[in-house]
Amino acid sequence: MLNQKELNNLQKGDLINHYLLLKKCEIKLTKSNKQYLYLELADKTMSLNANVWENFSKIYTDLKAGNVVKVTGSMDDYLGVPQIKIISVKTADPTAKIFPGDFLAKSKRNLGETKNELKVRIQKISNSKLLMLMDRFFNEENLLKFTSAPAGKYWHHSYLNGLLEHSLELIRICDLMCDIHPEINRDLVICGALMHDYGKTEELSFDSSFEYTTRGKLIGHIVISTMLINEECKKIPDFPDDLRDCLMHIILSHQGKLEFASPVIPKTLEAITLYQADEL
């Protein structure tokens, strides 16, 4: 476990002798066309820029974005923006057993409790076909990735276990809406809440930083989720076509508007319910 002061608690002039995650390592040019080394360094609390102005060729060769580095220097700022004044930076010794995942923000909720909450809620689904479908998506093999993933790179729940936390929050909202409006198909909208962002397990990589995968850039989580549902429904004997289509419609329309990347707008009560819940 890291025993060092978090970056967001440091003030200008404070010394740095930290393990940090190297997010970027690039050669850039000044306005006078002089090369310098640009680094982006981070812990769980924030990312900071750092520049190396001279004698950086070997540093640049040795460092690799996504790795843990040992940094010495001090806190500084430029035009009021905090940055690190570098004295030395090198790839962390493997014997230190400091890993990139140690620097990624995580949900504050207990993972065991949220996993159990998810499993308990899935088993309350009364429609046998939908329960079979959810059991396929949330088996132990798939559960590891779903419960680890962030819900986004920048926006909401952009931390490890964030996708699970966001999905559970949405389920609670949808359950409440179903209590108030019993005409909503509860099983269908809950499955929509479970699956609406499921594709983010493939859209995002989150081993050393949160980045969009090639598949995520080319297809996106909405379409990925929909494709997965279509594929798994085919494996369940006599899965009703209309039930499949209604669930896929919830996923396709959950961002509400065409300009927000939904290929269709919500047209069913359940789709409207999920969209409004997700907007909160």
Let me know the largest β-sheet: 5 strands, mixed, barrel
Helix content: 40-55%
Poorly predicted runs are none
What's the SSE pattern? EEEHEEHHHHHHEEHHHH
What is the straight-line distance between the termini?
A: 36 Å
Q: How many extended strands?
A: 7
Question: What structural class is derived from the secondary structure elements?
Answer: alpha+beta
Structural description of this entry:
This protein is elongated. It has eleven helices and seven strands. The model has no long low-confidence stretch (mean pLDDT 95). By secondary structure, it is α+β, with helices and mostly antiparallel strands.
List the helices and strands and how they pair.
Elements: E1 15-29, E2 35-42, E3 47-52, H1 57-62, E4 68-78, E5 81-91, H2 111-122, H3 128-137, H4 140-148, H5 162-180, H6 186-195, H7 200-203, E6 204-205, E7 211-212, H8 214-218, H9 221-234, H10 241-252, H11 269-279
Parallel strand pairs: 3-5
Antiparallel strand pairs: 1-2, 1-4, 2-3, 4-5, 6-7
Task: Give a quick set of tags describing it.
20% strand; alpha+beta; 280 residues; five-stranded mixed barrel; 7 strands
Summarize the structure in short.
By secondary structure, the protein is of the alpha+beta class. Helix content is 40%, strand content 20%.
